[in-house]
Write a structure and sequence with these properties.
Layout lengths: L1 E6 L5 E5 L4 E8 L8 E4 L4 E3 L11 E4 L1 E3 L3
Antiparallel strand pairs: 1-2, 1-6, 2-3, 3-4, 4-5, 5-7
Organism: Immundisolibacter cernigliae
Protein name: Nitrogen fixation protein FixU
Pfam families: NifT
């Protein structure tokens, strides 16, 4: 699914899913950087993000995969 990742003025990361008209803060990251790993949104969704360069400029729209809850 298409997901736009952006950072607000306070430095908080959020994810916007246009198809669901959903915007949620990113509350956890699997590893130190989010690219190529998993992030957790405030609503409990877990997304697997593509492997991009650490210095990728935000906002950026990527193809992410929603992971099923365990």
């Amino acid at each position: 699914m298409k997901v736009m990742i952006r950072k607000d003025a306070a430095g908080s990361l959020s994810a916007y899913v246009p198809k669901k008209d959903l915007e949620e803060p990113i509350v956890a990251m699997e590893k130190a950087q989010m690219w190529g790993g998993q992030v957790t949104l405030a609503n409990g969704w877990r997304l697997e993000l593509p492997d991009l360069a650490a210095d990728t400029r935000l906002p950026v729209t990527v193809e992410a995969r929603r992971l099923e809850d365990a």
